[in-house]
Amino acid sequence: MEIKKFAECERRGINRLMNFRLPHYFYKIGMALVAASILMFFVRAFVIEGETETLRMIFKKVLLIGLLLMSIARDKEEDELITKLRMQSYTYAFIIGVLYALIMPYIDLGVSNLVHGGGEVYKDLGDFQVLMFMLFIQLFSFITLKRTR
């Protein structure tokens, strides 16, 4: 009997996590953060001179936070179909993200050796690159799935 109570508690926790959504206005906040951080990347690259690695790191974090807010914000009309499409888009993002993290370093190594004439070393992807890629894939696949429903 104790196992059934434990399983039910775990099921409720998983359902609570799966159904967690921020209000819809967080989508707009996320869009503003993404736009501001992309704009600041350009400002940093072309206007600000000197050592700007700290700014670059801050803009990367703001970009990830903005994408995350867009990803977990409620839709205007949130129903069971939208929830299913959102879960499907997270699945796509996870699978494509893992494939990207496994294959992209070798593609990068091959192209780098072709361009620079050899002697390049294997470089693993950074966490920012993989997370940003997965969040973009999730958002674009979710939008595409919603439009084609």
Number of strand elements: 0
The unreliable regions are none
User: How large is the share of residues in beta strands?
Assistant: under 5%
- In round numbers, the mean pLDDT is 88
SS-derived structural category: mainly alpha
The percent of residues in helical segments reads over 70%
Largest sheet report? none
Instruction: Give the termini separation.
Output: 42 Å
Instruction: Tell me the series of helices and strands, N- to C-terminal.
Output: HHHHH
- By DSSP (H or I, 4+ residues per run), the number of helices equals 5
Radius of gyration: 20 Å
| Broad shape | globular
Q: How many domain units?
A: 2
Could you characterize what this model shows?
With 149 residues, the protein is mainly alpha-helical. It folds into two domains: 1-74, no CATH class; 76-149, no CATH class. Helices cover 79% and strands 0% of the residues. It contains five helices and no strands. The protein has helices at 2-18, 25-46, 53-72, 80-116, 127-147. Helix 2 (25-46) packs antiparallel against helix 3 (53-72). It is globular.
Quick recap:
Helices cover 79% and strands 0% of the residues. It has 5 helices and no strands.
Summarize the helices and strands and which ones pair or pack:
Elements: H1 2-18, H2 25-46, H3 53-72, H4 80-116, H5 127-147
